[in-house]
Amino acid sequence: MSTTTNPSPHLTANALFGLAGGFKHGFKAVVTGGGSGIGLMATQALAQNGATVYITGRRKEKLEKVAELYSPKEGVGKIIPLQLDVTDKDAVLKVAEQVKKREGESGIHLLINNAGVACEKDTTSFSGKNVDFTDAEKLAEFLWKADPEAWEQTYRTNVTAQYFVSIAFLPLLSAGTKSTSGYCASIINTTSTSGIMKGSSGGQFAYSTSKSAFNHLTQMLATTFMELDAKVRVNAIAPAVFPSEMTAGKSGADQKTAREEMGERGKSYPAGRPGREEDVAAAVLYLAGPGGVFVNGQVVRLDGGNLLKQPTVMF
Known about the structure:
By secondary structure, the protein is of the alpha/beta class. It has one domain: Rossmann fold (3-Layer(aba) Sandwich), CATH 3.40.50. The protein is 39% helix and 12% strand. It is built from ten helices and seven strands. It has helices at 13-17, 37-48, 60-70, 89-103, 136-143, 148-178, 205-225, 245-248, 277-288, 306-309, and strands at 28-32, 52-57, 78-83, 110-113, 186-190, 233-239, 299-302. Strands 3-2-1-4-5-6-7 form a seven-stranded parallel β-sheet, sandwiched between helices. Helix 4 (89-103) packs parallel to helix 6. The protein is globular and about 70 Å long. This is NAD(P)-binding protein.
């Protein structure tokens, strides 16, 4: 006599990664730097899977264009633009209050700290330069040209701002945990493999060390927020080179950067290609969805295996 086991509905893809169902007032997210690059990739993934996504950035027209182009024409997902400079502490609090007025006691379920810079004033990049690493005086002369303002600007945007944005939205995230049974709201920080590599990532000392600090901030916030009654998880994704304004210097009319501009990079990876928007989408849906509630304080490397081949430095 044979018996059959009933399938477990909580193990389906929709139950693990879906955002459209199971949330009483819908899934609500905030993405900083959502107008292009990785922020836009995350925004699309969330909105297309039923989330209401508040995107922020300094350029209002860019945000509005994203909302126009990528708000789902069918379903419950939508994109709402809110202008914000994350380095302005008072402005951050005002935007958090705007979101609270819209969402009330139900709060939000996800904050993606994606805004960041690779400061143009950071002149210590080795890329394309003939730097003599064998002569201490020549190397010191080159590195001494670094602008202290570049360090300050980089850390102000990539670390300090992320701290204050996280704190400003913490009550809303905790409220999101309270309002959703069996779920824990979370923060996803966009760091970088440059903050993990043992070397200087081509000499970008300010950028690389800021991303390393951001990785550590992720773990500090995760540890701290575990003490809350209504807890909030904090994780990070650390991408290698993905198509974005930061890596390619520009974006097209669709706010995206063509993958062809990334050249030969990535052909040695298991996927045989550079990173794409679907790779970011999969990581975001995993960490943010119901199936990710057991993940906390982790840095997920989206590098295609790059650090396995180049753990020290990448020129």
